[in-house]
Amino acid sequence: MIMEEEFTESKETLNIADDGLPAEFEYKPSKELLQDYGGMDGTDQQQQNLLQQSAASQQLQQKLVDPNSCIILHPGSRNLRLGLPSHSVPFTVLHAIARRQKDASASKRLDPSIVPLAKMSSDRLREVEDCRLKVSHILQSSLTSDGTRRFATPPKQLSTHNRRVNPELDDELSEPCPALLQPTQDYVTGDEVLNISPHAPYHIHYPWQRGDLNSHGGIGGSLTAVMSDLELIWSSAIQDKLNIAHSDFKMYGCCVVIPDLYNREHVVHITELLLNSMGFAACFVFQDHVAATFGSGLGCACVVDVGDQKTSVSCVEDALSIASSRLRLSYGGSDVSQVLHWLLRKGGFPLSLEPSTNSTHATLVNHVKHTYCHVNLDKCGPEEQQVRVLQPGSHPVHYTVQLGDELLIAPLSLFYPALLQLTGDKTTVLTQPDNPGHHQDPFDENYLRDNSRRGGKETAETAGGGEVGEEDMVVEDQLTNNGSSGNNNSNNTGSFKSLMSLEQAIHKSIEGCGEEARRRMYSNILLVGSGANFAHLGRWLHSRLLLQIPMQFRPEQVEVMTRPKDLDPGMTAWKGAALMTGLEGSGELWISQSMWEKMGVRVLREKCPFIW
């Protein structure tokens, strides 16, 4: 008691504060600092700001769930699909722009509307011809559904008939087709680009190519120019098709469907474009293969997306695309169109076509492909078909031609890719490369992986050289394989060489999954994209897949879905994104302008519905 009283008295005498420091040395923060960090007078202001931000965030999330407050964009190599979640199907516009030349005497850049034919050596052309003969012989040796052997008409016989065909007027009273345009504005976007005269002083750009941004060393090929093209195309399409003024973009959120095999730098630029350049209130990035499973109502599937210029494959389970299963092939529906054009020439098609340089001819070849091509083995022998030709400034005419097995050989080139080398080398297979890192996101997976290894090593040394625990190994494996491809190399450059057919690509993709997931993936194959929209193609893929599946992973039933819910396969991913934005929990995935300004690239790792 005496000691306590003495200590209390001495404390009062020396004027010592309760924390043990003399009162004159007591730290008193300024009012401004308290307001910044929340203390005393600043507490109320900070809490008020947090409440206001939380209320604004909740209000924005509730608004974006509204099916009329969100715009869905699905960009592709040829088409842009867009609409509101309340729409049953999206609008489809040409994903291209024509910009007026500043110097009319300078050379023009005219991106073709269909992939051009490649210059081939005689040896390469002989390989393509041998592959055509191989497919033709396979078709001749196949059986129809009633067990009879198919027969085929030789191309020379078809050529003899077709070369004698003359054009016939569709209707003598019909008006001539509109002439090509000579526009005067600075730029033209959408479907009107195809109607511009090739002699008009305009550059024509397709900002998306082979499933990614079309950056190159030519005119308009810089990343800045490509993003500017995207802004004009997307803004014009939204205003024309959805009747939403540019000044009203700030009242909407925008969900953009990105490739499953994405380029991180490009995703950052697209997010910057949507939030800062176009001025949307918030944005949401969604992988196309995951969106396709949502649109088809599947929780687990191996998704095969055959687009206009690329074919991508990945395995999706529980709304996540498995990174080690992702791969992309450099061929698609446009390459199939060029194969069909080559076969039509061999069959003596009466009209000389140049689809690589003439957009009207490219449209005609695509029309023949979509209308007449199939993989129905019950159809054999020559069939008379009317091919309608719409030449600008001329009356519509049609040719009555005989078409044979070229209608089957063209779509079957997806299974015999040597035919597709008419448009160039197809041996490069892209995979998900390692994360190169970003200066705005220092604590990314590379940082976590390096520190987990260092921490595991220190723990082992501290424990006297003991083994690392199984749980630590699992965490490290997840970090290591997060951005790697199916080959699981530590330094994955994102590609390898192989001439892969469609079923081989599916098999390679599923090999990137764990053993437990492989059987589930083989039992659910989802075929989407407009590039493989051919009748009975799913049956052929099913029979080819059965030859690839190992016995230990063969499921009881292999199902290949080509038109889930009777929806156009080219619109499945867009429909899935529309469904995703309407879910109750999707409000947490939106990236607002304020989030982007404060966090930058880091917010993508926090908000994206996939492993960034």
What attributes characterize this protein structure?
disordered N terminus, single chain, six-stranded mixed β-sheet, Actin, alpha+beta, ATPase_NBD, eight-stranded mixed β-sheet, Actin-related protein 8 isoform X1, 612 residues
Give structural notes.
The chain is of the alpha+beta class. Among the domains are: 2-62, no CATH class; 122-171 and 360-423, ATPase, substrate binding domain, subdomain 4 (Actin, Chain A, domain 4, Alpha-Beta Complex). It is built from 19 helices and 22 strands. The strands form five sheets. Strands 12, 13, 14, 15, 18, 19, 20 and 21 form an eight-stranded mixed β-sheet that branches. Strands 3-2-1-10-11-22 form a six-stranded mixed β-sheet, with helices on both faces. Strands 6-4-7 form a three-stranded antiparallel β-sheet, with helices on one face. Strand 13 and strand 14 (320-321) form a beta hairpin. It is globular.
Largest sheet: 8 strands, mixed
From the spread of the alpha carbons, the general shape counts as globular
Main CATH class of the domain at 122-171 and 360-423: Alpha Beta
**Rg, Cα atoms, Å:** 30 Å
By DSSP (H or I, 4+ residues per run), the number of helices equals: 19
In quaternary terms, these chains amount to single chain
Number of strands: 22
Question: Runs with pLDDT <50, length 5+?
Answer: 1-27, 36-42, 465-491
Class of secondary structure makeup: alpha+beta
Summarize the helices and strands and which ones pair or pack:
Elements: H1 2-14, H2 31-37, H3 41-65, E1 70-75, E2 79-83, E3 91-94, E4 97-100, H4 122-140, H5 155-162, E5 168-169, E6 187-189, E7 202-205, E8 208-209, E9 212-213, H6 223-242, E10 253-258, H7 264-277, E11 282-287, H8 288-296, E12 300-306, E13 311-317, E14 320-321, E15 327-329, H9 333-346, H10 359-372, E16 383-389, E17 397-403, H11 406-412, E18 428-431, H12 445-462, H13 470-480, E19 495-497, H14 502-511, H15 515-523, E20 524-528, H16 537-546, E21 559-561, H17 572-581, E22 591-592, H18 593-599, H19 602-607
Parallel strand pairs: 1-10, 10-11, 12-20, 20-21
Antiparallel strand pairs: 1-2, 2-3, 4-6, 4-7, 5-17, 8-9, 11-22, 12-13, 13-14, 13-15, 15-18, 16-17, 18-19
